[in-house]
Write a structure and sequence with these properties.
CATH superfamily: Head domain of nucleotide exchange factor GrpE
CATH class: Mainly Beta
CATH topology: Nucleotide Exchange Factor Grpe, Chain A, domain 2
Number of helices: 3
Number of domains: 1
Number of strands: 6
Radius of gyration: 42 Å
Helix content: 40-55%
Strand order of the largest sheet: 1-4-5
Shape: elongated
Order of helices and strands: HHHEEEEEE
CATH architecture: Roll
Structural class: alpha+beta
Largest sheet: 3 strands, antiparallel
Length: 186
């Protein structure tokens, strides 16, 4: 009779299935805790999940609050920039009204009308939060607010004091719309 030789391909499929099932049972079976170690109870698992979700919620709430504040600052900045742009467009008109006030005229009513228009424009600027930069003679020169176009030696003025203002400067809060054009002494 012929004897059957066992080849690697002809292994017993039943033995393989039994071994595989036993290995699977070992990996799926929960490990029993050793005596003296704490095991996680279902309540502790839920508490950990709750803590994780609560932490994520708090982070999201803080992120939203930061976004809200940043958006508010940006809106205020855009408003200030728009006002600065509009005021900048009107500054040549202010300059012309100042020149008209300095010009000699025989008509007192005309001069009064120009002065009223000038004052009304400055009041409208105040309503928008626009202020005139102080540049009266004797004021200390500040390069952040003033633009020195001339420099003179004059003993009547101290070091770095403004002697004359050629053009008024304007600012909105801390933002300079236009620097004051001045002559500085010493």
């Amino acid at each position: 009779m012929m004897s059957k030789k066992k080849t690697p391909q002809m292994e017993d499929p039943v033995e393989e299935t039994v071994e595989t099932a036993a290995e699977a049972a070992e990996t799926e079976a929960p490990e029993e805790p050793a005596e003296g170690t704490a095991s996680e109870t279902p309540d502790e698992g839920l508490q950990a999940k709750f803590d994780d979700l609560n932490n994520r919620f708090l982070r999201m709430a803080a992120e939203y609050e930061n976004f809200r504040k940043r958006s508010q600052r940006e809106r205020e900045g855009v408003h200030a920039d728009a006002v600065a742009y509009a005021v900048g467009a009107l500054l040549p008109t202010v300059d012309n009204l100042e020149r008209a006030l300095k010009a000699e005229t025989a008509d007192a009513e005309y001069k009064k009308g120009v002065e009223m228009t000038y004052q009304q424009l400055l009041e409208a600027f105040k309503g928008l939060g626009v202020t005139v930069i102080g540049s009266a003679p004797g004021t200390k020169f500040d390069p952040n607010l003033h633009n020195a176009v001339m420099h003179d030696e004059d003993e009547a003025f101290g070091e770095g004091e403004i002697k004359e203002t050629f053009q008024q400067g304007f600012c909105i809060g801390d933002k300079v719309v236009r620097h004051a054009m001045v002559r500085v002494a010493n």
